[in-house]
Amino acid sequence: MNDIYKILVRPLFFRMNAEKAHEVASSLLSCIEKFPVLRKAIETFINTPTQTTNVFGINFPNKIGLAAGFDKDGHFPGICSSFGFGHMEIGTVTPKPQPGNPKPRLFRLVKQESIINRMGFNNQGAESMCRRVQRSYPKGNRIAPLGINIGKAKTTPIKETLNDYLSCIETLDEVADYFTINISSPNTPGLRDLHKREFLDPLLKGIDVKVSELSRENNKEKTPCLLKVSPDETFNSLEEILDIAIKNNVRGIVATNTTTSRPKNIIMNESGGLSGKIIEEKSLKIIKFLHKQSNGNLPIIGVGGIKDVDSAKRKLDAGASLVQIYSGFVYEGPLLVKKIVKGLKKREQWMT
Ligand SMILES: Cc1cc2nc3c(=O)[nH]c(=O)nc-3n(C[C@H](O)[C@H](O)[C@H](O)COP(=O)(O)O)c2cc1C
């Protein structure tokens, strides 16, 4: 079945330019999303094994999640859970709709099984996402938890950034199982400056106050907030970020986003964030460092270059509690999730 994707489906998609292919795939998935019977049929057909794990107080049916950016507006989390994903992170969403950067802004590096993107948080805004998720993937009727990745608008000055994150949290708290505070996408001017103490400390403090307030008002647990970091930070900077995150009750780190650096074998001269197989080592180093530095006390979601059982296992061995995939899903197809979950389960059984 995986071969059918590689032999028949992928060549069709790869004949289109990368963004067009993503639009076509998203339309198909959004269409299936509207038919719960089809979703159920796909779930039964794929039949991904369960390997339940509890991380930051949430039960996940397995350790493999969909990374942010694939479903920016929450059009198809249900069908992704039918494909076997143990969680889906939708977004990045901003308070109001914004168009993102001019096209072309998405490029495949097929030989290196990698992608360059400079999408720039194109999205339909938090209110529209909230209504959509309430309709198609409501709380209480989920196979897999739903994370919401939130960011700042392109035009918001860095000093007013907190308001954007608070606005997203206020609008989406009722539908989110967890939030990821995205400070690491390279395509929004100034966003990565939020890694600096002078901005990060007040930002995370403000967010913690808001989720505490919402928890009291609605008589429920605080929605866990995670922080998504860049692979381009130094270890010194990451040490400081960990400190600030722990102090402000951040419940986990998503490591990592895309890189702006370019290994020697990348000849494509496009700006933006690089993802896929080529960033595996870079994100692995960061995960190992964060795990060691936090004494394993802060859960890590490992992202970057996962494309098979081995690469997922390397992330888990480096200290990640969960992992996420974006580029690998594009190159390997929807059966990749089951393949990894099955493979990991088998290896765990051998160990015991
Ligand atoms: C086209 C594209 C769009 C992305 N958009 C977002 C985004 O909106 N927010 C975010 O936090 N990460 C975004 N990412 C980064 C991914 O979530 C992930 O961190 C990164 O691609 C590394 O994982 P991978 O090697 O499995 O692709 C995007 C990645 C790609 C390829």
List keywords for this structure.
42% helix; 352 residues; alpha/beta; eight-stranded parallel β-barrel; binds flavin mononucleotide; globular; 12 helices; TIM Barrel
Describe what this molecule looks like in 3D.
With 352 residues, the chain is an alpha/beta fold. It has a single domain, classed as Alpha-Beta Barrel (TIM Barrel), CATH 3.20.20.70. The longest helix is centred in the middle third of the chain and has 21 residues, at 197-217. The chain has twelve helices and 13 strands. Strands 3-4-7-8-9-10-12-13 form an eight-stranded parallel beta barrel, surrounded by four helices. The protein has a three-stranded antiparallel beta sheet with strand order 5-6-11, with no helix packed on it. The model has no long low-confidence stretch (mean pLDDT 97). The chain has helices at 2-15, 18-33, 36-46, 77-82, 126-136, 161-172, 197-217, 235-247, 280-293, 309-317, 327-332, 336-351; strands at residues 53-55, 58-60, 64-66, 87-93, 106-109, 114-117, 146-150, 178-182, 225-229, 252-255, 273-276, 300-303, 322-325.
Structural class call reads alpha/beta
Query: Quick one: CATH superfamily?
Result: Aldolase class I
> Poorly predicted ranges (pLDDT <50, ≥5 residues)?
none
For the biggest sheet, the summary is: 8 strands, parallel, barrel
Which CATH class applies here? Alpha Beta
Q: What is the helical fraction, as a range of percent?
A: 40-55%
**How many structural domains can be distinguished in the coordinates?**
1
Q: Judging from the principal axes of the Cα atoms, what is the shape?
A: globular
- In the CATH hierarchy, what is the architecture at level 2? Alpha-Beta Barrel
Radius of gyration based on Cα positions: 19 Å
The chain-level mean pLDDT equals: 97
Tally of contiguous helical segments = 12
Query: Which small molecules are bound?
Result: flavin mononucleotide
Order of helices and strands: HHHEEEHEEEHEHEHEHEEHEHEHH
